[in-house]
Here is the input.
Amino acid sequence: MFVFFFIHLQENKVVKAKLSRVSAVVVYLLR
Here is the structure.
């Protein structure tokens, strides 16, 4: 499941970029 998700992110750089932006928002909210 996680492997498939990882491959999916590698194939879709836009999705990967959105994910990193979401993680940045999460870090901001946790501060």
Summary: The CA atoms of residues 5 and 25 lie 21 Å apart. The helical segments are 2-11, 13-30.
